[in-house]
Amino acid sequence: MWLGNVKVLSMETLVRYYSSSRKAAVNVRKINPKVPTQQAYSIAQSLYGIIKQHGPLTVSNTWIHAKDAGISGLNSKTHMKIMLKWMRGRKMLKLFCNGVGSNKKFLHSTLPEEPRTDQLEIPSEVKLQDERSPAPKTGKKLKDKKMKFGC
Length: 151
Known about the structure:
Elements: H1 2-17, H2 37-54, H3 59-69, H4 77-89, E1 93-100, E2 103-110, H5 117-131, H6 139-149
Helix pairs in contact: 2-3
């Protein structure tokens, strides 16, 4: 009898999981920017510059900076959101969540760029310093420290 209930529950779970009520995620690669492609790339370049200059930004902060910059071709905040989605689909931006408790902030940021050669030289210098073995510690110094602190 108990096994029959388990089968029923698992069947209900499968039906719920595979039901048509679940919607697939939007394919951001197929977002229509609602402007000609060349103009879309021009707007995207301006938005990319704003986000790169001012760091990770929320949509509302991005809109404030975009209005101040006077980006031509950007019609409204809704159009800017569509452009940000289009840019994410083109791997120009990434969206991440900064959640603190029940409050969530979604921030747009630029993807990391190619590492520079001057940045690559620094870890090799650190590696050379790590290869040296530290001086061996003597037991006498450890005993003296224990006597000073009463351990």
